[in-house]
Amino acid sequence: MTVAHILRTKGREVVTLASTHSIAEAAKTLSDRRIGAIVISGGEGPIAGILSERDVVRALAGDGADALQHPISRHMTVRVETAREGDTIPEIMERMTAGKFRHIPVVEDGQVIGIVSIGDVVKHRLAEMEAEARAMRDYISA
Fold it and tell me: Looking at the DSSP assignment, which residues form a beta bridge with residue 51?
């Protein structure tokens, strides 16, 4: 199974904000949209960074309530790992585990076409394992 399969199932919507928005605006967007990360656009290339719930917590822990007025650019992750549609689920799981991140934008031809979370990966991997187990039970009982 590949990233393309996950995107077909979950959709390709990507929530983005400009790096000039405040951490407070980003936190509201995360909460309102019930998501764990926002792709930060603008500047050079299709992705300027990514801001996750973890980044918001770290900003607040480091700078207190003042962090809410800071621009996203001050606290976002700038070195963003990306995936391609053809990447396999095990490849993505390994990269997320090794890099200790939970969201990975999917980029094709220089454009962000989706985002995959560790929850999406686990959900699809479990479905794959259940299908394999069902096939094995059917084979044995036949």
Answer: 38
Tell me the CA end-to-end span of the chain in Å, nearest whole number: 26
Dist. CA 33–CA 48, nearest whole Å: 21
Q: How far is CA 130 from CA 29, 125, 135, in A?
A: 35, 9, 9
Say which residue the tokens 């904000």 belong to.
17
Kind of pairing between the strands at 111-117 and 16-18: unpaired
Residue 78 belongs to domain with CATH number: 3.10.580.10
Model pLDDT for residues 124-142, shown as the tens digit of each residue:
888 878 888 888 888 888 7
Host domain of residue 42: 3-141
* Full-model pTM: 0.83
Number of domains in the chain: 1
Orientation of helix 53-63 relative to helix 23-33, angle to 10° = 140
